[in-house]
User: What shape does this take?
Amino acid sequence: MPDIILHNYPQSPVAEKVRVALGIKGLSWRSVEIPRLAPKPMLTQLTGGYRRTPVMQIGADIYCDSQCVIRELEHRIPSPSFFPTADAGLMWCLSRWTDGALFDATVKLVLGAAGDALPQDFAADRGRLYLGPDWADGLKAANAALPHLATQLRAPLFWANQQFADGRAFLTGDAPAAIDAQLYHVVWFIRGRWENGPAFLSEFQGLEAWEAKIAAIGHGTFTAMTPEQAIAEATAHDPVHISGHDPHDPQGLKPGIEVTVSPDLDGGEQPVSGTVVAASVDTFTVARSDSDIGKVHVHFPRAGYRVNIS
Assistant: This one.
């Protein structure tokens, strides 16, 4: 198998989720540091326009969104499993909340609390990405609603804290699971990026002990790679052959259909255009060609993404 390459930057909470996932499996990987702000020309050359963080690359296969990354890592390296109990379906359902409403509330709290101290270029970029076209009003509203936002985070963290009342080490038992990484990135973000985060989290002693265990897992073993080297890796490989479609797909996605893909929230991002190679209930893949790289497969999750048939 070609090297696992993670296109990320150190401050990204979603990248931290994937770095912890790589640590849970004890993997060796290559790290390409990408810009925090657009444009990200060498990343989007691989993805066809997708610019969110992180992106995983294995040869000429490009995996967008942490959902796809975790699924593919589990498929390629099944042991140790991200799903050490019989609750995989429940964990995926719960991850739509940790990665969705819970993370969104955390972003609003962190950005809102930063107020005027937030660099304007960063505020414009992340505000548009997470709050939509009316991001400036959204940031003002978040700043005015900080106690409410903290309350909305406190209740679910209280519930998570209760999980550890029986002495378990991780959320589902004695072994770390995908859901541990998926909740941890929210806690990591609160602690590191909100001035009141450490004091806010100190109420939850079980959660803090769990947080320390996750941090101790680490990120596996990684070495730096340049963007140019990552592009050369894609050029040197062919995408893995896959096929298939879901006969119950509400949009009727099948191989050969031309589509454009973008995150479900209007973040002002460039859609990715390509030809459907395979589609299932939770993942789909498009093929695209770049004049310098050649053919790549770009993989997306179905949940949280909009597919428009050309």
